[in-house]
Specification:
mainly alpha; 3 helices; Metalloenzyme; metal ion binding; Metalloenzyme domain-containing protein; phosphoglycerate mutase activity
């Protein structure tokens, strides 16, 4: 998963999903968890850097598209099931340069 997110402009790299082959069986209960925290967008909010915040969001979009494409390819085999949840822990608008009461975006697909 980290390869898919770290090279969003490249062609899709091979990404391992646990349980995919006998050499990497994953957990016996089938529950694995991956976490990605994009500090760039967060820092741009604190620094009141609108251009960097926009560029950071634009860079994340292709990475998410690539990850969801790989997820779809894997799930279309009928063997694997997984979910993706994308959420911010809080908003950091460039207008304030600090946390705010504003709601955060939430996206989930299963």
């Amino acid at each position: 998963m980290s390869k898919a997110l770290s090279a969003p402009l490249d062609s899709c790299p091979y990404v391992f999903f646990s349980g995919e082959d006998e050499h990497r069986p994953g957990r016996s209960d089938g529950l694995d968890f991956g976490f990605l925290h994009s500090k760039t967008i967060y820092d741009a909010g604190h620094d009141k850097e609108l251009v960097f915040k926009i560029k950071g969001l634009e860079a994340v979009d292709p990475a998410i598209r690539q990850l969801t494409s790989l997820r779809w390819q894997q799930q279309s085999t009928g063997v694997f099931q997984n979910s993706i949840c994308i959420i911010g822990d809080h908003s950091t608008p460039v207008e304030y340069g600090d946390y705010s009461f504003k709601p955060v975006t939430f996206l989930s697909c299963s």
